[in-house]
Design a protein that fits this description.
Among the domains are: 443 residues, Methylamine Dehydrogenase, Chain H (7 Propeller), CATH 2.130.10; 187 residues, no CATH class; 107 residues, no CATH class; 193 residues, no CATH class; 47 residues, no CATH class. The longest helix is centred in the C-terminal third of the chain and has 46 residues. It is flat and about 140 Å long. Helices cover 44% and strands 12% of the residues. It has a 4-stranded antiparallel sheet, with no helix packed on it. It has a 4-stranded antiparallel sheet with strand order 3-29-28-27. A 4-stranded antiparallel sheet has the order 4-5-6-7, covered by helices on one side. The two termini are 23 Å apart. It is an alpha+beta fold and 1503 residues long. α44 packs antiparallel against α45 and α46 runs parallel beside α49. It comes from Pleurotus ostreatus.
Length: 1503
């Protein structure tokens, strides 16, 4: 609980080098002269400000870094013997830029003196960042062999060993794959588009990179996976904490009680106010200087003043030279004095919420209280007597509003519009500014910001009204940043004696969650300019300027640093604001404030001074510093985490580091100059540390149990971090020269090489010195991993390779991808790879002819064949101007040379010598050693080996513009002529011939200006496409023919149509016939095509009919006849679609279709008629709509309808009634329908049909006869001696009786409920129905009685009893239906029952106990009614109980609710049930308070 003396502290701004944060809330300010009433700029202004801003003299000790800069970084841990200070050596590396913004003695005092100098232990380096600390048996661990990637398993030899590796889904000559164009971009990776086609077993560069992606990602994540980044470094002020928070124990022992801390001020000194009305003043050494208000306190050595405001309304000004008594006191006044006009000021009992000094005067202060009154006080003296001048600048007294004497102010309810959320005068900055002369004061209320001035005359200059209502309406904060010399704070330079232009003062203020920024300057008058706004996640509780560009924002859960130049948060840490002291928390006991409002009132517990953040907590006092980039790096280095330090410095260099960039230049060049040098220094220092002699043998390599520690991770991480840093710097001198030499000298170059390899494979490092490349290649060669050798060679710049070594290894291990890369990229020899691979092809061809009588082992056959197909991929890339295997674009000159050399070699008419000149060998292709070389030997060999792959490569090459210029000596036409010449020779196989024809046919229309062939040649190609008997290539040949026909039209189309029909080119025929409007041939081409799916067939037939139909809607007879002839095929394909087609276009063909289906079976006819007539089905098994609907205008032969009814009775007699109901009566022949039902024993349908025809009595008579027929069969089944004779008809017969009973009862019910006056004897028809059913029961009962008395088999008796029970149930159901209608018309149940009894007694089957059956029937009915009654009773009780509980709960909830006096929002006055259009969703929700006030959710006040 706060005492009556608790209040606020204030002090004149003095030490403002880093901004005005020391006096935002005005708790503490200092001046040197106690007799200066006004602060003047003239005279000693510069001297005074220099003294105020000084942080130490120029002779402050600085580290001597000359020798350190020469030697680089030197590690200073427990395992290194370095006599100098570690921090001094680090600062020698990082330089002076890592220091904070004000590097003077006073700042050092703030930075270091706040920490209690305990006996510190020596710093231990955190070796975990260098090693996984895994014990091993060796004292110095070397890295083990990395896990090897598995080699692709070889496929077993099979009969398909010598088949083409081409995959039909990627070839450009195939018909069913989209044509993929060559990718032009350098990084497109052409190999990816051809890798499946040529089926290379080795990884391409792109594929190897992707395979190692996860590995490299893990490497990068591991190298940059720092611990959670430290943003602020907090230090507890232990002396101050001990002095303040141990006062309770002191009071118990009889010592002075200071009270509980309430407010904080930090401005050169640390002042803390307590609820006992005392102010404790400490210096930055945490020594207590004085206690203001304590007569026993010693004198302070500082000559400053402090002002405090109290809960009773008093304001006291203390001279710290004499803190025992106040130098000035402002007493509260009364309402009577105010009303009489004798005095202004705070009323008695008004709690002071804010005080502050105006400008540089210590006797001019401004204050505000809890009732919204704000005053300026000029505390002067006249003849040694206090003569204060008090001016009200905001607020009104309650007596002025009411016009009468109010009640006690302490008992009045505080109104939000008179609340001062924050108040602060504009402090003086490091640079004079015209606004200083105005004595500006900013006041913040819940609804507006008011800026006033006291000079030259008091005046309100402007107001800013609150528009955004988000957040609490009673939460606000503000902070001024005065005019300063630009760059002065950052460069730590004292204010110059010369007048320099300063910055414009900035005011930051907040309402709720929203933070605003305005500039205030003079332009004739005082004007302002808003320049920014930002919203936090929750209410802003406090604001403090950290420097000219950054402001500290405190919310309930976070502490954030906001950059006004970027207008975003750059730092954010979790910080509980409830842990800070709130001076108003004690007011919650009396109910004056809510706990939520009081707990968040922490603005007086946080201060910033010279970049240091002071916080007054409930249990401790802390000071924190926002860590700069150099501080973070220094932290890693001090902890021995050198690799993390390198990574962090690198991230600052590339601009990817998170958080603030304080201390770094804003321009990229300046930032990179500073951080780049630090990265280099850290790499050098880390390498020296890692490979120092002491480091290699010190105690960090031995565990406590005497075992060794594997330090492999340290050396691996050093390579990774330095590699990443060198990539960022684009400077590899240290990495390849110095760092590699360290590893090589230590005998662990393997670690360096293995960690370097991922960077090479990811193309991050392309240029590697040849000596290192040699070692890396040799490392994998010695390890038996030729696949890794190939990957390395692919990704290294050719200039870095040892050519002889690379070629030797590639030839020895058959690394043909790498060999092609070396030849083409390093030697610029583009023909040599083809020569090498043609040699392999020749060997395979010889093996195909002579079997295994070659030098190739059987185990190597498959891999050798895989290598041969690389020639096609190489040709595709090289002729397209791309490198192999990377697929990157070649330089123009290299691409032109490659194409010229390859075209000249491949399409040479005879064998040539390669390499040209002396020492070259003749490149032969013949399979015989002494065989004759044919013309165009190399084209022939490539075609014979795999024509599709070769032509695929040529198709890609044809897209290149190189072939447009015929002066190059090669053109598309020349190549096509060569292919035609090879075709005419007759030496090629049928498949090769087909692919050549496909290639020509598809390219002629693509390049008409370049490929101008004779019509006869094109005709020959077209004919050749039709003559191949292979059905697997028919679609490919047909597509090629379509291409060719787009550029060439044959003269004799009729003969060609015959040729196409024989070849099966039906798609071409359909196109031709459609264009010529030849309907029958078009229809024939559709029906004859075996590749057409049924759905496509019917849609195409519909297209034919729709196109052939005449304007008057008639279908040509030839089309009708063609479809008639095709009906068997259409029906066999899909019956339902055939029905739809005929019903839509040819309904007169239904009869023919049914007749055709008769050959396949009556079930097919039934399916057809079901699809035609329906009714529609929509169930789980089938869903369809019939082709014919009852409202259709198409005439259907009645014979089909009758046939459908007959077939339905045959296959589904149980559902015939639904069919009869669905079909219109006009189509039905009722007599024949009844006859069909009787024939197929669909008795219920027959009875229903007779009744539907208008003769209910006849239908019931028929039903009686049907029941007797069924009973005869039932009795026969019951009398059958064996299961085989009885079969399974008994259950079926019982079901028939039940269906007849349901139909007859339905007829009786309909007649009983009918309002028709037709004379139908109701009692007679009921008697007829019940009499027939009872007769059936009596006959079965008589049989059961005889069976029981004769001692028949148990099974026979059980069957009889089961049947009897079923029949009795039928009678009971009939009686129940009768009872439901006995109240209608002339049906008397007693009379009817008597007739039934008398009738039963006269039958031949009746016996002396003929009443037994009636007794059983009635007993069963009564039991059924009794059960139904019990169920209804139970249900009623359950419903009553649930209803009672529901109503009771609703009543309780209604009693707990709050009644709203009106159905309108109390804030916006809009109706709650008329939601305005285009508003937020929050308007759709309402909130009712316990007082009955009702709001929209978005209009709800947050306080």
């Amino acid at each position: 609980m706060s005492s009556p003396h608790s209040g606020e502290l204030g002090a004149p701004a003095r030490h403002l080098d880093d901004g005005p944060t020391s006096s935002q809330l005005g708790p503490l300010e200092f001046l040197e002269s106690d007799d200066a009433e006004e602060f003047e700029y003239e005279g000693d202004y510069d001297t005074r400000m220099a003294e105020l801003m000084s942080e130490g003299g120029d002779d402050a000790p600085k580290p001597d870094s000359a020798s350190d800069e020469e030697d680089g970084f030197v590690y200073d841990g427990v395992d290194a013997d370095v006599p100098t200070s570690y921090s001094d050596q680090l600062r020698a590396v990082l330089g002076p830029e890592h220091e904070s913004e004000d590097d003077t003695d006073e700042l050092d005092e703030v930075e270091t003196s706040l920490i209690i100098q305990d006996s510190e232990k020596p710093m231990q380096p955190e070796n975990e960042s260098f090693s996984d600390a895994t014990p091993s048996t060796s004292s110095v661990g070397l890295p083990g062999t990395p896990p090897r990637t598995e080699t692709p398993s070889k496929r077993p030899l099979s009969s398909q060993l010598f088949r083409s590796y081409i995959h039909p889904s990627v070839s450009r000559l195939r018909s069913f794959t989209p044509q993929s164009s060559r990718v032009q971009s350098p990084g497109s990776g052409m190999m990816n588009s051809h890798s499946l086609l040529f089926n290379s077993q080795s990884l391409s560069r792109a594929s190897s990179s992707s395979n190692l992606h996860s590995q490299s990602s893990e490497r990068q994540e591991g190298s940059t996976n720092h611990d959670e980044r430290e943003v602020f470094r907090w230090t507890q002020l232990r002396n101050i904490t001990t002095h303040l928070y141990s006062h309770k124990a002191s009071s118990v022992m009889g010592n002075l009680s200071l009270g509980s801390p309430t407010t904080l001020a930090a401005n050169g000194l640390i002042c803390i106010g307590t609820d006992e009305g005392k102010v404790c003043v400490y210096d930055f050494q945490q020594d207590l200087k004085c206690i203001c208000g304590d007569e026993g306190s010693p004198l302070s050595h500082d000559h400053t003043y402090v002002v405090s405001g109290h809960a009773t309304g008093y304001i006291q000004l203390y001279d710290l030279k004499n803190p025992r008594v106040p130098a000035r006191t402002v007493a509260p006044t009364t309402l009577a004095s105010v009303a009489s006009g004798r005095q202004e000021g705070h009323l008695q009992g008004s709690r002071i919420v804010s005080v502050g000094f105006i400008a540089g005067r210590h006797t001019a202060i401004v204050s505000a209280d809890e009732h919204g009154l704000a005053f300026s006080h000029s505390l002067g003296k006249v003849l040694f007597v206090e003569a204060p001048d008090i001016l009200r600048i905001l607020g009104t007294y309650a007596v002025e509003e009411a016009g009468k004497a109010p009640l006690n102010p302490l008992l009045q309810r505080r109104r939000a519009r008179f609340t001062v959320l924050a108040m602060m005068p504009l402090p003086l900055g490091t640079s004079p500014h015209p606004t200083d002369a105005y004595n500006i004061i900013a006041l913040l209320t819940p609804k507006k910001l008011v800026v006033v001035s006291l000079k030259p005359t008091p005046k309100t200059w402007f107001k800013c009204t609150r528009e955004d209502v988000r957040g609490s309406r009673r939460r606000g904060a503000m902070s001024w940043y005065p005019s300063v010399v630009p760059g002065a704070a950052e460069s730590s330079v004292k204010p110059s004696s010369k007048a320099e232009p300063g910055t414009i003062p900035v005011l930051a203020y907040s309402w709720g969650k929203t933070l605003y920024f305005i500039k205030v300057f003079e332009s004739g008058n005082l004007v302002h300019e808003a320049f920014g706004k930002w919203s936090a996640d929750s209410d802003i509780l406090a604001l403090q300027w950290l420097n000219s560009k950054q402001i500290v924002v405190m919310t309930a859960t976070t502490l954030e640093v906001f950059d006004i130049t970027l207008m975003k948060t750059i730092e954010r840490v979790e910080r509980d604001a409830l842990s800070l002291v709130s001076p108003t928390l004690g007011l919650t006991v009396r109910g004056a404030l809510s706990y939520a409002d009081a707990a968040g009132d922490v603005a007086h517990s946080i201060r910033v001074y010279k970049g240091k953040i002071f916080m007054l907590g409930r249990e401790t006092v802390e000071v924190g510093t926002l860590l700069t980039w150099a501080d973070l790096i220094l932290t890693y280095v001090e902890n021995g985490q050198f690799l993390q330090a390198i990574d962090l410095a690198k991230s600052y260099y590339v601009g990817e580091a998170p958080g603030n960039k304080n201390g770094l230049p804003e321009d990229e060049a300046g930032r990179k100059e500073i951080t780049g040098q630090r990265v280099r220094d850290l790499m050098v220092a880390s390498a020296r540390y890692a490979f120092s002699e002491e480091r290699m043998t010190d105690s960090t390599h031995v565990t406590s149990d005497g075992r060794g520690v594997d330090r492999t991770s340290l050396f691996e991480g050093l390579v990774v971090s330095c590699a990443q840093a060198s990539i960022a710097l684009d400077n590899f001198d240290f990495f390849f020269e110095d760092l590699f030499q360290y590893y090589d000298d230590a005998g662990i170059s393997r670690i360096f090489l293995l960690q370097l390899e991922p960077f090479i494979l990811d193309n991050d490092i392309r240029f590697v010195p040849p000596r290192i490349t040699q070692k890396l290649v040799a490392l994998h060669d010695e390890g038996g991993r030729p696949d890794l050798v190939e990957r390395v060679i692919w990704h290294i710049d050719p200039a870095c390779l040892d050519i002889n070594q690379a070629i030797h290894l590639c030839q020895r291990h058959q690394l043909y991808d790498a060999l092609i890369y070396v030849y083409s990229s390093a030697l610029r020899d583009y023909v040599a790879p083809i020569v090498e691979l043609l040699g392999l092809i020749r060997k395979i061809q010889r093996m195909r002819i002579y079997g295994f009588e070659t030098s190739i082992d059987e185990d190597d056959i498959e891999s050798t064949m895989a290598h041969t197909y690389k020639v096609y991929g190489y040709l595709a890339n090289a002729l397209a101007g791309l490198s192999y295997p990377a697929g990157q674009s070649l330089d123009t000159d290299d691409a032109s040379r490659a194409k010229s050399d390859i075209y000249g070699f491949v399409f040479s008419g005879r064998s040539i010598v390669w390499p040209p000149g002396e020492g070259g060998d003749l490149v032969l292709t013949s399979t015989d050693e002494d065989g004759v070389e044919p013309t165009y030997p190399y084209v022939r060999l490539l075609l014979e080996y795999d024509a599709e792959s070769f032509l695929h490569s040529l198709d890609i090459a044809f897209e290149d513009g190189y072939l447009n210029n015929e002066s190059q000596g090669v053109s598309r036409l020349l190549i096509v002529k060569i292919l035609l010449e090879l075709l005419s020779s007759g030496d090629l196989s049928q498949s090769d011939t087909t692919f050549i024809n496909i290639f020509i046919a598809r390219n002629v229309p693509k390049y008409p200006q370049f490929l101008q062939l004779a019509p006869s040649a094109l005709h020959n190609v077209l004919i050749a496409l039709t003559e191949d008997p292979d059905p697997s290539s028919r679609e490919d040949r047909q597509l090629a023919a379509e291409y060719l026909l787009s550029a060439y039209t044959p003269h004799d189309s009729d003969s060609m149509a015959i040729v196409f029909r024989i070849a099966g080119f039906y798609r071409i025929l359909r196109t031709w016939h459609r264009q010529e409007q030849q309907w029958v041939p078009w229809l024939t081409a559709i029906l004859d095509d075996p590749d057409f799916r049924p759905a496509e067939v019917f849609s195409s037939v519909e297209d034919v009919i729709s196109s052939a139909v005449s304007p008057n809607g008639d279908i040509p007879p030839e089309v009708d006849n063609s479809i008639s002839d095709a009906l068997p095929r259409l029906l066999q394909s899909d019956i339902q679609n055939t029905v739809q087609l005929l019903q839509k276009h040819l309904p007169h063909r239904h009869t023919q279709a049914v007749e055709e289906l008769g050959k396949l079976g009556r079930n097919k006819q039934y399916d057809y008629l079901c699809y035609l007539f329906g009714p529609p089905r929509n169930d789980d098994s089938e869903s369809w709509v019939p082709a014919w609907t009852p409202g259709s205008k198409v005439n259907i032969p009645s014979a089909l309808v009758q046939q459908y009814i007959s077939l339905h009775c045959e296959f589904h007699p149980d559902n015939i009634v639904a069919v009869l109901q669905y079909l219109p009566e006009s189509l039905l022949d009722w007599d024949r329908a009844v006859e069909s039902c009787e024939t197929h024993e669909a008795f219920d349908a027959a009875v229903w049909a007779l009744n539907r025809h208008g003769d209910p009595q006849k239908s019931l008579s028929k039903a009686e006869g049907y029941e007797q027929q069924v009973m005869i069969k039932i009795l026969k089944d019951l009398s059958s001696p064996s299961e085989q004779e009885r079969g399974s008809d008994l259950d079926h017969q019982i079901d028939m009786l039940q269906s007849i009973a349901r139909t007859t009862v339905g007829i009786c019910l309909a007649q009983s409920r009918s309002t028709d006056t037709t004379d139908v004897p109701l009692e007679d028809i009921w008697f007829q129905v019940l009499g027939s059913q009872i007769s059936c029961v009596q006959r079965v009962s008589s049989f059961y009685t005889r069976s029981t008395s004769d001692g028949d088999a148990t099974a026979k008796v059980e069957r009889a009893w089961k049947t009897l029970s079923s029949l009795r149930l039928i009678v009971q159901d009939t009686f129940s239906s009768l009872v439901s209608v006995t109240s209608t018309r002339a049906v008397s149940f007693p009379r009817l029952f008597k007739r039934l009894v008398n009738s039963a007694s006269r039958t031949e089957l009746s016996s002396g106990a003929h009443y037994d059956e009636f007794r059983s029937i009635l007993t069963g009915m009564l039991e059924s009614y009794r059960s139904d009654g019990d169920i209804l009773t139970i249900s009623k009780h359950l419903v009553d109980r649930d209803l009672f509980e529901t109503v009771s709960e609703a009543t309780r909830e209604r009693m707990r609710g709050w009644a709203a006096p009106q159905m309108a929002c109390a804030f916006c006055r809009q109706s709650l049930f008329q939601t305005p259009q285009k508003l937020d969703q929050e308007f759709l929700h309402i909130v009712v308070s316990r007082t009955g006030t009702i709001y929209h959710r978005r209009c709800l006040p947050q306080d």
